[in-house]
Design a protein that fits this description.
The protein is mainly alpha-helical and 110 residues long. The chain is built from 5 helices and 2 strands. A hairpin with a 5-residue loop joins β1 and β2.
Length: 110
Amino acid sequence: MARQAAPANVRGSRTGRPIMALLDLLGRRWSLRILWELRDAPLTSRALRTACDEASPTVLQARLTELREAGFVELGDGGGYGLTPLGRDLCEMVMPLHRFAEKWSSKRGA
């Protein structure tokens, strides 16, 4: 089986394995939040910034660029950002973790 080339910036990994690249991307500030806010519907840059608690426009745009390059987010015809089919698949994979986090949070009284 041919091995795929490793993504350029995989922090903490010398192997560049896909799981490490994905966790690196998702671990970057605002990445998961952007995906979360786009899970229901596309948003314009301004609406996304508002939904992300007024995140820095520079950081937000950097993350959107990374998420677009990774194939999770796309710029729609109307100018808003939305999830690609791959991005929707990722969000579906995160939902069980979200449900677990809610359960965990309620058990510890947070």
